[in-house]
């Protein structure tokens, strides 16, 4: 009996897939089809697959060509499968020509002519309209955002806004954007969504005006300085039927999602303590150090360490204490926030002028998770136990500088194709706004003009 194996995502099942499977089956007597998991596709850089794996498997099954369906979830699995299932022929479409020649040590490799003029990518483009996104603010993060957006299908950056026309023009020219303007209302007219990356204190107003005009909003952190404003924005977004997302990129990073899943799985028992730190000795002339009202460790970096705490211990803390080390003008060089929950504790540390170890430690009743710096880009973490010889290591994939995951989630939310559970819910974002409000109140009490 000749055993054949083939692999694919089979997203939005199409004629190309059908014809490939038909010919793969005809190569032998028994056909095994490997369907990729979402996790594996994300690791390979396919971040906009639309059909869930159950549907993709079902569609392969319906063709009647597959004698067996398996899932492909990691690199290197093909060699394992070929040996495990005693495969004679591995086949894929000709778009992979040469790519799998290394498997010839194990079995015959056949590249079948790809069906012309059809692909999942093409169908995805037809199915969802492309989101035209405008950028508000053209500072340091904006060029990185444009570069990362190129990796996400279904979106393109069409326009830049800056109240200083010359800055908008220079940025548009450098990033090869077709349009730029210093008029916000005019800017909103020709786009579907905005990314707000302007100075902190302007976020909320730009977001509000965009939502009122029916635009989706991805807003840099901190989105607002009060709980009330955050609630208002989410309420308004709901009324207008648009997506509002706070751009705290760690929340959307697949490795961080995996870390949360492991933490919640019971592997470390009950979670009792979360300690998270993000610090950077910022240049003394940088905005982080010179903006005495809106700079400083907490407002610049506070959102990152707050995310694992809020996600794992929840919104209902009993007590919260904020302490800062200040510079001569009262701006925080270093801030420590301590939370007390009914059954747990947490600490968030952030700094612009004091450096500490940027790690995340989640302590439980059976063990703990240690994610070393840069845990906010989650490239690896360990689960450790009482027995120091026992360590479970995780090495999730991470591409680019992480912004692409946030952008992909934003597009998925707009298209209604994201997972049901929000990666950062409005309630969680509002809870963070409340902590920002507490921080600003303390600043005010110290006599700083806010
Ligand atoms: N395939 C084919 N002809 C097409 C499209 C795909 O023969 N027009 C083959 C691929 O070569 C692969 C299998 O079908 O062997 C599964 O491909 P998959 O990557 O799932 O489909 P694509 O349409 O290529 O997906 P995408 O556009 O996301 O890359």
Fold and architecture overview:
With 450 residues, the chain is α/β, with parallel strands linked by helices. The chain has three domains: 3-112, Rossmann fold (3-Layer(aba) Sandwich); 131-248, NAD(P)-binding Rossmann-like Domain (Rossmann fold); 254-397 and 432-445, Dihydrodipicolinate Reductase, domain 2 (2-Layer Sandwich). It is built from 16 helices and 19 strands. It has helices at residues 15-26, 38-44, 53-63, 77-84, 120-127, 141-149, 165-174, 184-189, 203-212, 227-240, 254-264, 287-290, 297-301, 303-313, 403-415, 426-445, and strands at 3-8, 30-36, 68-72, 89-93, 108-112, 131-136, 155-161, 179-181, 193-196, 216-220, 244-247, 271-279, 319-326, 332-341, 344-351, 360-364, 368-371, 381-384, 391-394. The strands form three sheets. It has an eight-stranded mixed β-sheet. It has a six-stranded parallel β-sheet with strand order 8-7-6-9-10-11, sandwiched between helices. A five-stranded parallel β-sheet has the order 3-2-1-4-5, sandwiched between helices. Strand 9, helix 9 and strand 10 (216-220) form a beta-alpha-beta unit. Helix 6 crosses helix 15, helix 9 packs parallel to helix 10 and helix 10 (227-240) packs antiparallel against helix 16. The radius of gyration is 25 Å and the shape is globular. The mean pLDDT is 94. It binds cytidine-5'-triphosphate (CTP). Cytidine-5'-triphosphate binds next to helix 1, strand 4 and helix 5. Cytidine-5'-triphosphate is lined by residues 8-11, 16-17, 20, 92-93, 95-96, 114-115, 118-121.
